[in-house]
Amino acid sequence: MAGFAILYPISRGNYLLFHALVESFSVVVAAGIFIVAWNTRFVSANRYLLAIGMTYLFVASIAMLHAFAYKGMGIFPQGGSNLPTQLWIIERVLAALGFLTAGISLRRAISVQGVFILFGGLTSLALASIWIVPVFPTMYVDGAGLTTAKVVSEYVIMVMFAGAFALLWRDRSRFEPRVARMLLLAIALMIAADAAFTLYVDVFGLLNFVGHYLVLISFVVIYRVLIYTVLREPYALLFREIKRREEAEHGIAEQLQNAILSVPDRVGGIEIEHAHVSATEGVRVGGDFWDVFSPAPGLVAFILGDICGKGIEAVASNVVVRATLRNLAYQDSSPCVVLARANDAVGRQLTDDKFATVIYGVIDVETGAITIASAGHPVPVLCIGGVPTVLEMPINPPLGVIRDYEFSAAVCALGDTSDLVFFSDGLIEAGCKTEMFGIDRVLSHLESAECRMRGKTAQMLLESCLAHAGGRVDDDVAIVVLRLEAAGV
Predict the structure, then answer these.
(1) CA-based nearest residue to 481, from 373, 359, 364
(2) Mean pLDDT of 479-483
């Protein structure tokens, strides 16, 4: 309001002076926007403001030419009101395109060099169409006022700014609320300014004054946003962007993990239970994975693995190891062969500091015979008639640790009253180090009548583990239970 109180009387007394002051200040502000954006481009996390800053160099250049060309300045020999109006339209188109580019950059990466080349080329072509090959449409006729081309151009510019407003509104959550409101206000002011510029008749009239004043305010708002976000509170913006990217990465990782941990309730005559909890707080993402599938008629293969590490980083390795084991099983389902081949493949695929522990086995559904091998993984438990027993199995190293290793397997049987329970080390290591959940508690809970209820074994065991650990685990916990399908099911 103070600016209005000062500038309006000046415009009534000497409009040319008012215009020179407003345009000069606009040029300084636009140039300042570019300078701040350019010199902070390597530390700013906000592509939107960077895109606007890059384009405002060209907006400032045209604004300066517009100020020099204004009627009465006497700098350009053409004189009249058409030239400054043509330059004004060029300036407004560049500004609108700048905001559209910024809006697009919120979801697509932009190149600073590309923006420079694009807007530099557009600016050069526009100026050439006025002074070198004069084909630029007439925008103002002295004594008659605005041409149809000028009015249509302003409406097109308003539509462009409206599109930029919509793009920013769509992704406003990427900004702090105050910053989003200020940017939306700046675009709204530009739309209002262009509306005023469609109605004026006299280049020294009130509507012309209102249009210039609104544009000036919008420039100042953008400048304040840039200073606030990049110089005064850069870390808040940076952390907001990091959080947004982290949430996106978590979303992708959870989708992958859901695919890894999703198995049917039954495969080839085998019933399946599973339960899982991640050590990564708030997300279902971790280093554990499992799979149950039929590599050949009458056979059901099962896998439970654990990649060293946890959280998002382990998910990519999960995909690699799980896919490798499954593909090898379809070639030869023998546990010793599969683990030996997977050991060599995993050693090449994972980094030197990564390895995987795995339980892999095959069930002959008709006889119930199980051939099972462990690669550094906790030994499974076989419950027969409600009595749990830890299987006796050969000790083998994790995958990716010793090249060309010959793995050994064990043999047992799955009867009508039997459950095969296998799990990751997060189960037995849950709780404080002085009192971990341990294998004895696993056996004790598997003996309980409640835990032996069909379909609830895995979940009840997980709940007991979490209760012991106080509701939070330091390593991912995965539990899988296999049994022969009940008769008549």
Answers:
(1) 359
(2) 90
